[in-house]
Design brief:
Largest sheet: 5 strands, mixed
Shape: flat
Strand order of the largest sheet: 12-11-15-13-14
Structural class: alpha+beta
Radius of gyration: 45 Å
Number of strands: 22
Length: about 1550
């Protein structure tokens, strides 16, 4: 497959002049915008803004430069990417842009002079143009101001010089345009190996043009339209008449507006307008006036085609240069000014030679092509049209007429005169005319006979017989029809009469057919119903899960889904029991894998209750016996350890060896104890022998061994000490190890860490450590082991009860009583009611008790059949998340009732839709602004309660009772596809859903399918050229039809569940963000949507942020209701460019974080003005002082529930770590509800920094930021991610920095996520006044900056003072008592992570104790102390940036403050260089460096400083703010 592009008559005059309100070609504006954002490009091309170039700004108002909806920077990037796709090299792209820039410079070349001579008055522009085009500057100047005439030169007048300049620009652009088309055609051309067999061509033509002033271009355009109109006439009118003649139909010729006279006047050789124009061009003194006179001489012979203006208008000098052509579409006045020059369209040879001699091969090639073309423009155009006309006549062509509804370029506005004018011009009215005058309805003889034979009174075999019969009945009227050679021709009215009679005659026949078909259908349905029930009965008898599921998938075809049929009910019950058996077997399997006795007992009990017998149960019984033996062996080992007798230990270890339990902790402890006894016995014997021999050295050596074994009280040791005159003392190394074990033992006891106690016990035995701490540790270990065992039993029982609770029959009061007994036992172990463990059991018990009580309510409601009772019962089912058989029956009954209600209310719903449509049409942009402010009001208590309640797993949207059963959902799905569709019912899929996901009336279900199609098309899973309109369709449907809102939310959640197509998943979440910002779910369904978002908000990256954004947006949307505004397509379009985000913005002091929803179309300036400033109440005069700072957070870890709980309890209550597994078992799947409860009791989860410190035990490496690429787009430009310095790897930022006002927060978030991190935003002061004094606000900011590491304090002595002050403030402005108190106050939370990575919290706390005596006695004094210490720091008040230092090939810091721009050592303890603002002459940025032109006042030298950094634009923005607000800042 290949392609080819041909261009006809490029409008080159547009390059040098445009009408009011019109643009030049877009590439000029794109290049100017791109250069504004790239200093290197701007410098290279020497370009100014579009408003500074003559060819792009010829009117004062600049209305054509900045066009709403056009982003020239982004469009430039798109143009470059398109060139990449077309295979145009980067080098050639640069050359093309140099030519475009050269053309702009040509336009800026100013020419002075008079009617006799001219001169260049702006030679700088001429030089720029010459340099970019690679031509000689003097040659270019000479070519503009004069031309060679044989052996001499003719000086150009000022006007002629301007024409020469513009002709050069037009020729250059025209040939460049042709060059690009050639490049594209080369890329698209078909392989030479394949023969060209056929083609499909699209001709996009000029529309008919008629302006106030029409010139040569309009004549060519309208001539083109005349040629194509003639082809249209030939195709439509002439072919129509030829058909009548061919069929022998008597019909007078129909007159139509033949335009052959117009074509004759324009194109006739020697006598036509073009011929006259070409001839006039050849004359030495040819002129526009001479051309006009010769054209008007043709007026009499033109057949009313040519005319001059009326006599009264000729008084106007301008009208004296006009001739009129009466075109097919209407009369047009042509002004002949510049006709000859435009037709000549050829450069003087002087300028051609200049271009052909260019050093640029591309430019030279363009001018060579220009030299080869010496025909006039009219001749070239006519030849092209002749070729086109021949091509069109040789093809089968079809016409698409586009009608412009209005001139305002807006929707929903239909201007009748405008449309009628276009229909007239395009000849469509003539088509209607000929149709009305002829016989538009034609039927072949065979078709006519078959279609109308039913109307004949007698049997007819031919069409002629039928026509005679119908004439007799007066159904056919002479003159209203005619019989041709192959067809019967009828007028429209005649055909309508026959169709009406045919419809009436078919009614009786159709009734008979329907009778037969309906009977057959009912018999077929009966057979189908019988087979479904037979299959169900067979599967029920076999108790086969697969057969039952397959059979039940077909019950959707039964009336009322078969819920009233006993066979169906029995099958559902049997399937539930089969699945319950599988769950119990899974419990047994897991218990066996875990070798957990309690779990095995609970699982076997559950199996016994349902009468389950399986080889797995026998395996569990055998394992149970083995575990009991192992427990006996463990008891034997513990008794032997307690006896501390070698024989007992040996006997117990032999039993452990036999049971293969040597790796058990008790066996290891026993082995350590036996080893200790044997070493002690050996040492005592050796000591006794040494004493007898009087070997003093041996005595001392054995005393040391006994000391290291922890036994210095034995009589032999005492005797040895007397003999040797030395005390028994362990070696220093052993003594150190013993002390370390004792220290760790104390910590383990303090933390109640069972794992640590178990690990330390063998070492305690080995070293013979004794004392109170050992006894305390032993007692604690016994207590914790008992609790561990008890809670293992509790977890097993609760798991078994939970499994039974979801079974068909549910749980009983006896099951709840079993929980009560276990709860009582736990309390006897010393637990209190408010302990987490007891509270968890009580909550579970309450839920189970509620289920038992609910079953009675459900049964009563089902027996009554009362709608209100059933609805109340359904609320209970939903509230408790019941999944029992009774609950399912209630769902079915309520679903049927609600479906009937929805069907009955369809008319009301339609009326509501019409009302909403009217409201949406009447909305204004003011409404949009008002709504935005209202949406950002503070969270309501109702929403906070909704979020808390929604964390329960019962609000998993897959449990929503209105979701269709599989059998209903799959009713129309082929049998072979049912399994796949059923499995993916509530999971992402690329195929259309067969029915709505929720139970909806059929009409609404059809719309739901359309919505799903629009979702798939927007997300790219189905093709659609206009995906944004699909998103708009979804939102508008939800706004206009509130009954579909929950269905749409359900579809959106389905789309992102298990979606393994990243782009599709991302776009699906984008739709969910659009939905939550536009319309709320119903109050009933809202908790399900919130639950879904809660379960996704812990995910890293964009998805987690999308989920948080949806939760916040739902608050405002639920409060305000659905928006009254139609969605804006321009805003929707930005969702494909960058993500919407929830910007969670920290503030200094005790202020709550701001949660700002940011749509993709909002840049930072909009976020400030629309949200942050109104919320914070900052005055307009102070707004410039504040900024939004960002720093890259650590990678987001998707931690498991166990990991989250472990970190949580490490922070708040380490004693609970022993029960983490129990919590996981009892709260699994209910994560958010658990953490809602825990955070209320203890406080928030650990921050990212805290979690990192807890995970590494405060012994990690130095903090390393991960950001390696710029995240800030250049001003007014969408820079492509990935451009970094080609010199060295640039350093990552270490400190938060202020974002420029022009960036889009969505871009920042996206680019950081792509680099594996997430942004942390802070709103605070970015500019400081010179000599600014402390204020409460500034002190709070400095405190925050110190903790976050933005205020660098390199000296630890000063850092510890600041830490101590912060802890005192936490302690109510009172000094902490000691190091332990400091740790309790949260020392880790107020210590910069850099110091935490170098020292342990204990070491920092001990160092801080030295500062307690110097603390102030109240809050003011403490604040003053803090400010004074910080103010001494070199980097105080600076915003810090990371810069690559060429000398050291490492990092330095760039600091910006009121004094200027500083280079600071990486540690922040030394200023290397300072550039004061008054010495910075100019500054700028690229993607990889910040540059400054700096003047050295003393030497008078100017130097350009280049600083490699990925934060170049951020530095640029801050330096700009300081230098442009000097007066405000007292600089």
């Amino acid at each position: 497959v290949g392609g080819n592009i041909t261009q006809y008559l490029l409008e080159r005059s547009r390059i040098v002049t445009q009408a009011q309100g019109e643009r030049n070609y877009h590439i000029f504006y794109q290049l100017c915008a791109a250069a504004e954002t790239d200093p290197s490009m701007k410098k290279k091309l020497e370009l100014e803004e579009a408003s500074q170039n003559w060819y792009t700004s010829q009117y004062d108002n600049n209305e054509s430069i900045y066009v709403e909806g056009i982003n020239d920077q982004n469009e430039y990037q798109s143009t470059m990417k398109a060139m990449d796709v077309m295979g145009i090299s980067k080098a050639d792209q640069d050359k093309v842009m140099e030519i475009v820039a050269g053309i702009l410079h040509l336009g800026n070349v100013e020419i002075g002079g008079n009617d006799e001579k001219s001169e260049i008055t702006k030679k700088s522009e001429l030089g720029s143009a010459a340099r970019l085009l690679g031509v000689d500057t003097a040659g270019l100047e000479n070519g503009i101001i004069k031309r060679k005439m044989r052996d001499t030169y003719k000086l150009h007048s000022k006007g002629e010089a301007e024409i020469a300049r513009d002709a050069f620009a037009k020729a250059l652009y025209g040939q460049l345009f042709n060059y690009l088309i050639d490049q594209i055609n080369n890329s698209l051309k078909e392989s030479a190996k394949r023969a060209k067999t056929s083609s499909i061509s699209v001709l996009d033509i000029f529309g008919f043009e008629s302006f106030q002033i029409n010139s040569f271009e309009q004549l060519c355009i309208n001539y083109c339209n005349e040629v194509l109109q003639a082809l249209f006439n030939d195709h439509i009118f002439k072919v129509e008449q030829a058909l009548y003649k061919k069929e022998g139909i008597n019909l007078e010729d129909i007159d139509f507006a033949d335009n052959s006279n117009v074509l004759k006047v324009i194109e006739t050789p020697k006598k036509g307008i073009f011929a006259i124009l070409n001839e006039e061009n050849k004359l030495p003194k040819g002129s526009d006036k001479g051309f006009l006179n010769k054209v008007l001489d043709l007026e009499k012979t033109s057949g009313d085609v040519l005319a001059k203006p009326p006599a009264k208008e000729l008084r106007d000098p301008k009208k004296q240069l006009v001739f009129i052509v009466h075109h097919y579409a209407g009369p047009v006045e042509y002004t002949v000014t510049d006709f000859l020059d435009k037709n000549k369209d050829r450069l003087f040879d002087d300028l051609l030679d200049v271009g052909a001699k260019s050093k640029s091969k591309l430019v030279a090639g363009l001018f060579k092509a220009s030299k080869d073309t010496k025909k006039t423009l009219s001749t070239q155009f006519k030849e092209q049209l002749d070729t086109l006309n021949k091509t069109l006549k040789a093809t089968e062509h079809h016409y698409v007429r586009t009608i412009k509804p209005n001139d305002e370029k807006v929707g929903n506005l239909f201007t009748s005169p405008k449309v009628m004018e276009q229909m007239t011009y395009s000849g469509l009215l003539e088509v209607v005319k000929i149709r009305k005058m002829g016989y538009p309805v034609r039927r072949d003889f065979k078709e006519f006979l078959q279609r109308y034979r039913c109307l004949a009174k007698a049997t007819v075999k031919a069409h002629t017989d039928l026509c005679q019969d119908l004439e007799k009945q007066k159904l056919l009227i002479k003159g209203e029809y005619q019989i041709g050679n192959t067809k019967v021709f009828m007028r429209t009215e005649q055909a309508n009469i026959l169709e009406g009679k045919r419809e009436a005659s078919l009614v009786d026949v159709v009734a008979k057919i329907q009778k037969v078909v309906r009977g057959w259908l009912e018999r077929t349905r009966y057979k189908m119903f019988s087979k479904i029930l037979k299959d169900l009965a067979s599967a029920t008898k076999a108790k086969d899960e697969a057969k039952l599921e397959n059979a039940l998938q077909n019950v959707g075809k039964l009336p009322y889904l078969g819920n009233h049929i006993p066979t169906v009910q029995k099958a559902k019950e049997t399937l539930a029991h089969v699945k319950e058996s599988k769950k119990v077997l899974k419990m047994i399997e897991d218990a066996i894998a875990q070798r957990d006795m309690n779990a095995i007992n609970s699982a076997l009990k559950a199996a016994k209750e349902i009468g389950l017998s399986d080889p797995l149960t026998q395996k569990a019984e055998a394992l149970k016996s083995t575990i009991e033996k192992e427990r006996g062996t463990k008891d034997l080992l513990e008794k032997a350890i307690a006896s501390n007798k070698a024989d007992d230990l040996k006997k117990a270890l032999a039993q452990a060896q036999k049971m293969k339990m040597m790796d058990h902790p008790a066996a290891k402890d026993a082995a350590s104890a036996l080893d200790h006894i044997e070493k002690e016995s050996k040492a005592l014997k050796a000591l006794e022998a040494a004493i007898k021999k009087g070997d003093n050295a041996a005595v001392i050596a054995n005393l040391t061994i006994m000391a290291e074994l922890g036994n210095t009280e034995h009589p032999l040791v005492k005797k040895g000490q007397e003999v040797s005159k030395q005390m028994a003392k362990a070696s220093k190394e052993t003594e150190a190890k013993m002390k370390e074990v004792e220290r760790l033992l104390k910590n383990a006891v303090a933390d109640k860490d069972l794992g640590a106690l178990k690990e330390l016990n063998p070492q305690v035995i080995m070293y013979g450590i004794k004392g109170a701490v050992v006894e305390e540790a032993k007692a604690l270990m016994r207590e914790l082991q008992a609790k561990e065992e008890k809670f293992s039993e509790l977890a097993a029982v609760m798991h078994a009860v939970e499994v039974k609770a979801s079974s068909y029959d549910g749980i009983t009061a006896a099951d709840v009583k079993g929980l009560s007994d276990l709860l009582a036992q736990a309390k006897k172990m010393g637990y209190k009611d408010d302990d987490d463990e007891i509270q968890g059991i009580k909550d579970f018990q309450a839920r189970m008790q509620a289920q038992v009580e609910a079953h009675g309510l459900l049964k009563k409601a089902l027996d009554s059949g009362d709608d209100k009772q059933l609805k109340k019962a359904m609320d209970t089912v939903q509230e408790l998340g019941l999944e029992t058989g009774l609950a399912q029956k209630v769902r079915e009954a309520v679903g049927l009732y609600e479906m009937e209600q929805a069907e009955a209310n369809l008319e009301k719903a339609a009326a509501l839709t019409e009302k909403i449509k009217k409201e949406l049409k009447e909305s204004t942009e003011d409404d949009r602004s008002d709504e935005k402010l209202a949406l950002m009001e503070k969270k309501t208590k109702a929403h906070q309660k909704l979020v808390a309640d929604a964390s329960d797993t019962k609000y998993d949207f897959q449990k929503y009772y209105k979701i269709r059963e599989d059998s209903d959902y799959l009713e129309y799905v082929p049998s072979e596809a049912k399994q796949g569709f059923g499995d993916r019912k509530l999971k992402s899929q690329t195929k259309l859903i067969p029915k709505s996901l929720l139970q909806l009336p059929q009409a609404m279900s059809k719309t739901a399918i359309q919505v799903h199609k629009s979702i798939l098309q927007y997300c790219g899973d189905l093709a659609n050229p206009y995906p944004n309109t699909m998103a708009r369709f979804m939102i508008v449907t939800a706004l206009e039809q509130p009954g579909l809102v929950d269905e749409i939310y359900c579809q959106l959640m389905k789309h992102v569940v298990e979606n393994n197509r990243p782009v599709s998943e991302d776009r699906g979440w984008g739709l969910l963000c659009m939905a939550t910002s536009a319309f709320p779910p119903s109050p009933e369904f809202a908790p399900f949507v919130v639950n879904f978002c809660l379960n996704n908000r812990t995910r890293g990256g964009l998805i987690g942020n999308y989920a948080k954004l949806c939760i916040v947006q739902l608050d405002g949307r639920i409060r305000l209701g659905a928006t009254k505004l139609l969605p804006d397509l321009k805003v929707i379009d930005t969702y494909s460019q960058r993500p919407p985000i929830l910007a969670i913005i920290q503030q200094p002091g005790d202020k709550d974080p701001l949660e700002i929803p940011v749509t993709p179309d909002e840049d930072l300036d909009a976020v400030f003005n629309d949200a942050i400033y109104p919320i914070t109440g900052i005055s307009e005069s102070e707004q410039i002082m504040y900024g939004l700072f960002v720093i890259d957070g650590k990678p987001k870890n998707d931690r498991s529930l166990k990991q989250r709980l472990t970190l949580f309890y490490k922070k708040h209550n380490p004693a609970k770590l022993v029960h983490v597994d129990y919590f996981v078992a009892s709260w699994s799947g209910n994560d958010e509800a658990l953490f809602h409860t825990l955070t209320k009791k203890y406080g928030p989860e650990p921050t990212a920094a805290e979690a990192e410190a807890l995970e590494r035990g405060n012994k990690g490496k130095e903090k390393k930021n991960l950001l390696v690429m710029s995240i800030t787009a250049a001003k007014n430009a969408g820079k492509r991610l990935g451009f970094v310095s080609d010199q060295k790897e640039l350093p990552s930022p270490q400190h938060s920095w202020a974002l420029p006002w022009w960036v889009f927060p969505g871009d920042v978030f996206l680019r950081m996520v792509k680099q594996g991190v997430e942004p942390v935003f802070t709103f605070k002061r970015k500019l400081f006044k010179k000599g600014e004094k402390a204020s409460a606000e500034l002190v709070d900011q400095v405190k925050m900056d110190f903790v976050n590491g933005d205020q660098v304090v390199p000296n630890f002595d000063e850092a510890k003072e600041l830490i101590t002050i912060l802890l005192a403030m936490r302690n109510g402005a009172k000094a902490p008592k000691d190091a332990a108190h400091m740790l309790d106050l949260g020392l880790k939370e107020v210590t910069p992570i850099d110091w935490l990575s170098q020292k342990t919290p204990q070491e920092i706390a001990e160092a801080c104790e030295a500062c307690l005596s110097s603390l102030g006695s109240n809050a003011k004094q403490l604040n003053d102390q803090f400010w004074a210490i910080c103010q001494k720091q070199i980097t105080f008040g600076m915003s810090l940036f990371s810069i690559y230092d060429e000398k050291s090939q490492g990092r330095v810091l760039g600091g910006v403050d009121p004094k200027g721009f500083h280079l600071v050592s990486e540690t922040g303890d030394q200023v290397l260089t300072t550039f004061v603002y008054r010495n910075i002459k100019e500054f700028g940025a690229t993607q990889s460096y910040f540059w400054m032109k700096v003047i050295e006042p003393k030497a008078g030298k100017e130097e350009t400083v280049y600083l490699p950094t990925i934060q170049a634009w951020d530095i640029y923005a801050l330096v700009y703010d300081y230098t442009h607000n000097a007066q405000l800042l007292n600089l």
